[in-house]
Amino acid sequence: MERMVETNCPVPSKPLPLLTCPLRVNFMSSMLVRALARQRHYLRSSEAAIVLLAVAIGLAAGLFMLIQSGAAHMMQRLFYGTDVERLSALKTIDPYRLIILPTGGLLLFMLSFATRTRKRVPIDVVEANALHGGLIPMKDNLLVSAQTLISNGVGASVGLEAAYAQMGGGFASTVGQMFKLRRNDLRILVGAGAGAAVGAAFNAPLTGAFYAFEIVIGAYTPAAIAPVAAACLAAAILVRSAGYPSYEIALPGTHAITTPDYLLYAALGFVCAVVGIMLMQTVTWIELGLRRSPIPDRLRPIIGGSLLIPLAWLSPQAMSGGHGALHQDLAIPLSLGFLATIFLIKIAASAISLGFGFRGGLFFASLFLGSLVGQAYALLIGHFPALPPIDPVDSALVGMAAMAVAVIGGPMTMSLLVLESTHDFALTGTAITAALCASTFVRETFGFSFSTWRLHTRGETIRSARDVGWVKSLTAGRMMRRSPQTVAASTSIAEFRRRFPLGSVDLVVLTKDHEIYAGLLPTALAHTLDLDTTAPVGPIARLPERALSPEQDVATVMRMFDENEADDLAVVDETGKILGTVSEKYVRRRYAEEIEKTHRELFGED
């Protein structure tokens, strides 16, 4: 008690726990704050510290993947009463159990009430890195994960990879925000977390690393190599230590890869690109059609689940991501008719699942569809005696890579998945060929991956996860000069010349009706034109109908300068009231400075 009195803490009537003394609480809090401050400084000044943090993120991402995978499979066993490891590998399903599909839609409907106050779509890792500097609210991660687990757990035709990447990248974002990392460091950490989760799911660290580089970060840079690699290796070691099986799709065929094979597989890449574009467009058509319909958003998964029942009854291969079905279909020779039937059923199931509001991704569905296209392609080639035959299993593996590239993007990501799942370098070479052909065709004719295409349908213009958020944040409102010189448009030329002599100011903004914008007038122009000095200055104003709004980004501002061949533009609010002016010279200088800053960050020079 004497010690407590010495510290000016009140003497309690009963013994108190150690931390109930206010001074001790404040002392411990200040110690924690100082410790966090030291760690922030260390992380912001040391590349090695970022790598160590990435290792911790990788371990967490691998753990989240194991938990989510186990939860989804437990739901499937509970709902469908089967001991089969993969739902899509079942031969048949009791028809009465398929009522679980619309019930899953009902679960999503109930979940939507828990988030009924939300005004926006949850931010995923690609959008976060492209537009928000890696910032993802933790609520978004939990919501996306819950929606995806429900969707996959009830058997909708969606994969869990979106949930894996969201939780891995989202957790990295939360940790990075806690330590107040720089924008580029946070983006790298988000990519490392997402890549580690995907790499853990396939037990393929190289695949996870290139998923981070190509799809989440949007660039392969020296600053990102060590953190991403460390996170992916840490996640892979964790899942292997936990007994998670290595991901081996199938053994490659015994057919030797020859030069004609490269040409045939390149053609397969173009075929997969066309199919991938059709799949993405189909999902979008369904979504847009439902938006125009009177069906409430929250009821759509229930309707979609009902539409999935006949497809699942025809073949359980339409359900879930398709892991079991892929392995099953590669194990035995299949007829062209069977492949075509399963392909159409899976396409329809994936489009309905995503179009009607089930949450998930097309990562594994695109792999499964690619394997079906590849096998069918090999069978069709066999009907042409003039063409050399190709092995159906090899063709399926190459088709997987090409289709996934067409839908998801990342040619090296998918090619390395083939390498790590087959350990065949020769086959990987053909997979790279097909993947590059598919990627080139999609970029030239369509221009988007599935994730960026869905953002495009919501009004965004990004084509990759490359950081363009600074473009969005560098707006006319931030760059404008406030309180410009103004004068009424009805002012006479003589009065204007008196108030603004040559050399006093370069530009004057004309107004009408209580500071409403009426045009721009360079002072030199008003002094050099031979006009009636009693006439008003309004008729000689430039760009009276063209002005910027404060939220327009720097790209739009520069385009406005080019279109109007102007040196200056006014910034006005929604009522037309003048807020300020911007000059083309200043805008382009700020743009160049931001580009230079971004390049320095990419190469780790900051």
Instruction: Walk across the major sheet and give the strand order.
Output: 1-6-5
Computed Rg: 30 Å
Output the CATH class name of the largest domain. Mainly Alpha
Morphology call? elongated
CATH architectural designation of the largest domain: Orthogonal Bundle
Task: Tell me the β content.
Answer: under 5%
Main beta sheet: strand number and arrangement? 3 strands, antiparallel
Question: Residue-averaged pLDDT, rounded?
Answer: 85
Q: What do these coordinates show?
A:
The chain is mainly α and 606 residues long. It has four domains: 2-42; 51-241, Clc chloride channel, CATH 1.10.3080.10; 259-462, Clc chloride channel (Orthogonal Bundle), CATH 1.10.3080; 475-598, CBS-domain (Roll), CATH 3.10.580. It contains 25 helices and six strands. It has helices spanning 2-6, 22-45, 47-80, 100-114, 125-131, 138-153, 161-178, 183-202, 205-217, 222-241, 259-292, 300-314, 323-331, 336-355, 363-381, 392-408, 411-422, 425-445, 450-457, 469-473, 476-479, 493-499, 523-528, 554-564, 584-602, and strands at 481-482, 486-488, 507-512, 516-522, 568-572, 578-583. A three-stranded antiparallel sheet has the order 1-6-5. Strands 2-3-4 form a three-stranded mixed sheet. Helix 22 (493-499) links the parallel strand 2 (486-488) and strand 3 (507-512). Helix 11 crosses helix 15. Residues 1-21 have low confidence and may be disordered.
What is this entry, summarized?
This protein has helices at residues 2-6, 22-45, 47-80, 100-114, 125-131, 138-153, 161-178, 183-202, 205-217, 222-241, 259-292, 300-314, 323-331, 336-355, 363-381, 392-408, 411-422, 425-445, 450-457, 469-473, 476-479, 493-499, 523-528, 554-564, 584-602, and strands at 481-482, 486-488, 507-512, 516-522, 568-572, 578-583. It has 606 residues and is mainly α. A hairpin with a 5-residue loop joins strand 5 and strand 6.
